[in-house]
Amino acid sequence: MIPLKAYLVLSALLFGIGLAGALSRRNAIMVLIGIELMLNAANLNFIAFWRFHPGTEPLAGVMFVLFSIAIAAGEAAVGLALIIAIYRHYKTTNLDRMDSLKG
Amino acid sequence: MTFMAMITCLPHMLLLANPDEWLVRLKQTIVHWLPGPWQFVISSLITIAVLIAVFGALFAVATLIERKGLGRIQNRPGPNRVGPYGVLQPMADAVKMLIKEDVVPRAADRVVHFLAPLVLVAPVMLAFSVIPYGQGLVPINLDAGVLFFFAVGAASELAVFMAGWSGHNKYSLLGAMRAIAQMISYEIPLVLSTVTVVMMVGSLSLVQIVAAQGGYWWGVIPRWNIFAPWGLAGFVVFMIAAIAESNRSPFDLPEGESEIIAGFLTEYSGFKYAVFFMGEYFGMFAISGLAITLFLGGWHAPLPYLGWVPSFLWFFGKLFIFLFVFIWLRGTLPRLRMDQLMNYAWKCLLPLALINIGVAVIWRFTAGWPGPLRWLVCALLIVLAFVWLEKTWMKSRELKPRTYHYAS
Amino acid sequence: MQAAFFIIAALIVIGGLAAMLVRKLVHAVLWLMVTLASLAALFLLLGAQFVGFAQILVYVGAVAILIVFAILLTRNSEWAKAGRLASPSWLVGVGIAGLATGCLIASILASSIPPGVPVPPAASVADIGQKLMTEYVLPLEAVGLLLTAAMIGAVIIAMPEDKRG
Fold first, then answer.
1. Which chains reach chain A with 3 or more Cβ–Cβ distances below 8 angstroms?
2. Facing residue for A4 by CB, picked from C48, C115, C161
3. Tens digits of per-residue pLDDT, A37-68?
């Protein structure tokens, strides 16, 4: 059987990939995709812990992931709406060019 | 069980037992011979093979019926050259599609262009796996069957986008955008009308939804959901949304040949086009199967004394009636305009579906009332609430000559 | 079971890496969908059926389409031209991410977490429904409110300014 640690390592890898992408890509949409990856890594952790250590509240892990998925959907909608609004102003989705507050 | 024993008991099974049971038992007998670890694999493979064979054959029959039926509606004979009365036309079509040149535009994204038809067909085939076709004839009885159906159905939107985007053709992309906007808009009333059934049955399992519709009121009227007022309204919403989901006329804007030259299918030819075509028909079968399961009692017989007919025949009989209605609508209704399509989903179907959920709750808590009174009150509530809402809130602008925003 | 885990895990990691590295945004979304669908498969493997289906319904059905529409509405972002993909400070970003991942993996491997129960806990749809309507009804309402607010907010933000009134 696959031990719990394997799932945790997989989740850590996914989180790392998402974090690296979100920190280093120039395009705002790519940053959002990186954030989605990180959220999903967290979900995987919840499900893995729920599966191996249900604890006293047997459904807490599943519930947490369901709410997390719903919130991720809302986050994506608002984030993409912001990107579209910014695009109207600057005609770009390149984050390095959105520097009007820079001194 | 040995081979001889099986041979001797086969006629017994055929004659005495319920035909649904012998289908299941035949499979069990075949699987029983095999060594332990193979049983699960072979059992699954048999089920998959049967599903593909049945629906593949149904696809061929459906194209023939559609072409013949449309021909009759339009006062022409339809295909009549291949075989007697043209019954071998699907074979000829298949051969034609297979030997046609597979054109891929030079600017196309080859990988995505290749994957799009597969991404469309595979999820639809998965959707077949949760529908109960007869008593005990369900490939997988999932606890969350309805959710599974809609989850795999969601992948078709991505497939349509892949098809439209990969061709690098503006008509493809426009068609795909139209198709996605339409599918997302109509998915909401589709799911909301399903929710009423799920609420009343108290289960997301399609097998339990069918089981809840067994039996008859006063010994004649089957206890199907469509015979309750919320079921009737839900069925109407569901069917309109289902026609739109499967991109059929009168909601076939994404593929409108006369406006955007077949939309996301523009850049497809030959075998890939055939796969798309098959995917759309499979989608139509799957959503009709879901409608039958949710509202028309699944495999239950319409009259109590017809219970001896094998249950899967009832299911497929109902499926053919749906097929006929789909073709009939295609032959008689003109195509909608894009703004009409959107308005219809958001301002008409969505309120009706929401009202329907409310009335379903009332129905649920008036179980003690005499039948006809309860029916009448609930039906009136739906009609009055809907009419009032449309009259006061959703009032459409007064009729005036059409104004063109983008063409001048 | 073991083979299934390794195939799915490979798909998740490859999909995630590809999503972050490819040049075309639409390809990135498609790779993201490979990752998220494999993740749903992993949830099914772990016995969380409802969550797996919800994951596919929400991500493949809704989030993918949202991102794709955003890409098409910001047209010149679709083709990252010959320019660089990464921002000038990408080395710092990758370094921070690598360090964080390294710390996480090292601490996971070093921890003495017990192996846990071998049988998956039961999570039938009926149980989840019961819990959602009793114990978790307040979070459920809050999520409903949040999604409504997000929807209205997204519509207003994305609306052209001359139409906002």
1. C
2. C115
3. 999 999 999 988 888 877 777 788 888 899 99
The rounded distance, in Å, linking the Cα atoms of C63 and B1 is: 52
Residues B301-331: tens digit of each pLDDT: 888 777 777 888 888 999 999 999 998 988 8
**Chain C residue with minimal CA distance to A61?**
C48
Shortest distance between the Cα of A100 and any Cα of chain C, in A, equals 17
Report CA torsion sign: B281, B284, B288, B290.
Answer: positive
Mutation to test the C interface, candidates B110, B182, B204, most C Cβ within 10 Å? B204
- Cα torsion at B272, B276, B279, B285 (round to 10°)? -130
Cα–Cα distance measured from residue C94 to residue C91, given in angstroms and rounded to the nearest whole number: 5
**Residue C2 included in any domain:** yes
Closest residue by Cα to residue B209 from B123, B302, B144, B148? B144
What CA–CA distance (Å, rounded) separates C112 from B297? 55
| Residue C127 and residue C69 in one domain | no
- C133 shares a domain with C73: no
Helix/strand/coil (H, E, C) string of C54-92? HHHHHHHHHHHHHHHHHHHHCHHHCCCCCCCCECCCHHH
Shortest CA distance to C40 belongs to which of B51, B110, B151, B173?
Answer: B151
Q: Please judge whether C54 and B157 are an interchain contact, meaning their C-beta atoms are less than 8 angstroms apart.
A: no
Please indicate whether, in this complex, the C-beta atoms of A50 and C121 are within 8 angstroms of each other: yes
Range of the domain at C51: 1-77
Q: How many domains does chain C have?
A: 2
Give the closest of B151, B162, B205 to C53, CB-based: B151
Query: What residues in C contact B187, CB-CB < 8 Å?
Result: 61
Rg (CA), chain C: 20
Question: Whole-prediction pTM value?
Answer: 0.86
- Are A12 and C154 within 8 A, CB to CB? no
Residue with tokens 């749903």: C40
Examine residue C100 and state whether it is found in any structural domain, yes or no. no
On chain C, the residues whose CB falls within 8 A of the CB of A3 are: 115
